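This section describes the prediction task in plain terms. A model, or a person checking by hand, is given the sequence of a single protein chain and must write out its three-dimensional structure as a string of tokens. No templates, partner chains or ligands are provided. The sample shown here is typical of the held-out split.
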Amino acid sequence: MSFPNFPEKYHGEPVMRPADTIAMRRRFGKFPKVDAPEGLILCLKNDLPSQLHWRVPVQKVGKVMGDFYLVKSTRGRVGVLSNFGIGAPAVASLTEEMIAWGVKRFVLLSWGGSLQTSLNTGDIVVADQAIRDEGVSHHYLPPEKHIYADTQLTASLTLHLSASSATLKIGSTWTTDAPYRETHEEILKYQAEDVQVVEMEIASLFTLAQVRGVQAAAVVVVADKLANLKWEMPEDMRAINRSFESAYRAAIGALDEDA
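The expected answer:
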């Protein structure tokens, strides 16, 4: 894998600043009127906070390109952001703003496709590293194949997840911008490298966290399968929903514990 090396992309002085965007959002009443939580869950299953509201009470406090909640049991220390779209650019832009606001720790809850035949729908992968096959990270750091999760937050998240009944795996993920260009050749290559799953956001979050000096970890719930070199959709959502609830509770526990 090779990418063009454009030093000005990650050394130059940017025109826009996240703090300015926050100021604009506040001016137009589009930013929560609360203090920043120390920890934030970026939740790609949009209905999860409302779906679990009776078991994990949350307070909706506004919108930031999506729905913003505070987890009541954490007394404002842990927030949840959902319904903001998909892909590396969306996650990176929102994370920039959240860091500028004051958030220090991030857990991304994502779903992805399994690359290993041993992984099935509803299994959970804690990503300890990500392959940077997307565009955003290359605007922040020189080209390298991998970017890594924060080890402390990942360990805490894994410990909280260990009580889950879902199959749990720690390993690498392949982040891509182009799900319809996941080729047979790439899948075979990454299978041989023991890459577990493919998704669209994690490399950008890990890169941004490293550059900005914050902590980031990520969980992928297996939804579909690519390991047999064809797309296999889930038969139903039951195992996926159970694993997302486990991941959600674990993320809240890890972020509240570390806050």
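For orientation: The longest strand covers residues 215-225.
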